Amino acid sequence: MYKLTSPSVALDIMHKHGFRTIKAFGQNFLADEHYVNSIVDAADISNDDVVIEVGPGIGTLTQLMCMRAKHVIAIEIDKKLIPVLNDTLADFDNLTIVNEDVLKTDIKAIVNEYSPERAVKIVSNLPYYITTPVIMRFIEEDVPFSLMVLMVQSEVADRLSASSGNKDYGVLSVMLQCVCDIEFMFKVPASVFIPRPQVSSGVIRLRPKEKRLTAKNSELFRSIVKGAFMQRRKTLLNSLSSVSELKTLTKAEITEILSQAGIPATERCENLSIEQFIALTDSTEAYLSK
Ligand code: SAM
Fold it and tell me: Ligand 1 pocket check: which of 25, 98, 201 to mutate, most ligand atoms within 8 Å of Cβ?
């Protein structure tokens, strides 16, 4: 089996297949044994697990996951990588390679076919240009997963895992943390990729919450969270008046809504917990339907 964690072996394989990386597909391949082991270890894969990998590249993480999992489904958009993967992963019969765009793949059909009874694990060194759409797709389509381990740009990892009061806390942190607990696992330096990216990366681990946190009106929740963070430095009294559903209300009415939710009008959105955003949405909903 090829030792793909060795940069010279990875380069030789690409050369053998006449493969050149494409920037537009976010192709920065991990070539480092320590970080490959750490990512796969973070997913705690056992031989009962079915794993979906987004973007296997030349198969570096895939190899190790195939050794540990019951089955791995690797979804790769670049058709030029398919012969490479057929070569590097030839030893495994517990692998399905899907040559598709993950944003168009019928993920639910894959889960139904390979793991109808057990939630899957999702592991990926994500192409940076579709980080948020991929994560949101898995969440919004309600793909049953027990764990996601994702490598993303370091600053995105900070934003996704930030809690209230932190400068990186924002719309994405709130929307995702309603449904998942998110841990920042470790940083990965740019020097361990081929080719080397401009920025460092971070690995995060997402576990679905036992009970999702939801407001009664999810559209209004989204609108309030987005509107509040558009002017994150302002007090809620000021930033909320730009939320479309609240535009016609006076400051006194917004103060009343905030007070019903137990939130001081001078508070800023970056200090609100998810539960407080939900209370604020529910109190707005109640006020608007009076
Ligand atoms: N897993 C490999 C590794 O760690 O070395 C490669 C990671 S590389 C950052 C991202 C991979 O995702 C590339 O192989 C790229 O071709 C693939 N990719 C990019 N866009 C994709 C999409 N929309 N659907 C599926 N795969 C995609």
Answer: 25
* Closest residue to atom 11 of ligand 1, CA basis: 55
Point out the domain boundary residue: 175, 208, 241: 208
Same domain, 170 and 137: yes
- Ligand 1 atom at shortest distance from the alpha carbon of 31: 5
Q: What is the total count of domains within the chain?
A: 2
Q: Report whether 31 contacts 7 (CB < 8 A).
A: yes
Tens of each residue's pLDDT in the chain, 290 residues: 999 999 999 999 999 999 999 999 999 999 999 999 999 999 999 999 999 999 999 999 999 999 999 999 999 999 999 999 999 999 999 999 999 999 999 999 999 999 999 999 999 999 999 999 999 999 988 899 999 999 999 999 999 999 999 999 999 999 999 999 999 999 999 999 999 999 999 999 999 999 999 999 999 999 999 999 998 889 999 999 889 999 999 999 999 999 999 999 999 999 999 999 999 999 999 999 98
| Nearest residue to 100 via CA among 81, 123, 87, 125 | 81
Cβ burial of 27 (10 Å; 0-12, 13-18, 19+) is: buried
Q: Give the span between the Cα atoms of 108 and 173, in whole angstroms.
A: 25
DSSP labels, 227-242:
HHHHTTTSBHHHHGGG
